[in-house]
Amino acid sequence: SRKRFKALRTVVAWRGRAEWDQVMVGLYCGESRLQQEALDRVSAWKSRYGPKMPLAVDSTAELIRCKVLDSSGRLKSHELILSYGLALVRFVNLITERKQKVVSIPLRQLAREVDIPIWVVDLRHELTHGKLPPLALCRKGCDVVLDWLRKTYWSRQLGNNLCEENEDEDEDEEQEGVEENAELDNDAWT
């Protein structure tokens, strides 16, 4: 039984549940200094985990990085549009890419399937193929996508944490750096 339990574990980049929760709170707190600390932690995770990093974590970090840069006042409007634009384009592409089949499915249809507002897909289209949209629209798109990520991915993880009961209290120390919850990996959030 114990060997079987260990075989079901997934190794992750974060030290444990407390670090995961701390980063989630830091990313969404709205205070630039704490957000930057959370972004630094995500960068460390990415260096450890590489391409296995959950897409939701990566996308959230990219969008929060844009907000931190925006609040710093260091970038011009045009630079901010490009920064937000890249993060939004990557988000839509990564989300929909996982749902694509052998036959190409329109992005608007894929977005509907995962409950992303169609106007975000249209914004992605403008950023990719058209005239750059106003900064206010990019900011709004970022906020909507961050809210979607919070509801679809981050809150679900927190909810699972609150509902989980540890069956064997003696194994708590052994689980540092190892996460049982497979929903924290790449495949769980699409």
Automatic annotation (TrEMBL):
<dbReference type="GO" id="GO:0090730">
    <property type="term" value="C:Las1 complex"/>
</dbReference>
<protein>
    <submittedName>
        <fullName>LAS1L protein</fullName>
    </submittedName>
</protein>
<dbReference type="Pfam" id="PF04031">
    <property type="entry name" value="Las1"/>
</dbReference>
<dbReference type="GO" id="GO:0004519">
    <property type="term" value="F:endonuclease activity"/>
</dbReference>
<dbReference type="GO" id="GO:0000460">
    <property type="term" value="P:maturation of 5.8S rRNA"/>
</dbReference>
<feature type="region of interest" description="Disordered">
    <location>
        <begin position="164"/>
        <end position="190"/>
    </location>
</feature>
<dbReference type="GO" id="GO:0030687">
    <property type="term" value="C:preribosome, large subunit precursor"/>
</dbReference>
<dbReference type="GO" id="GO:0000470">
    <property type="term" value="P:maturation of LSU-rRNA"/>
</dbReference>
<dbReference type="InterPro" id="IPR007174">
    <property type="entry name" value="Las1"/>
</dbReference>
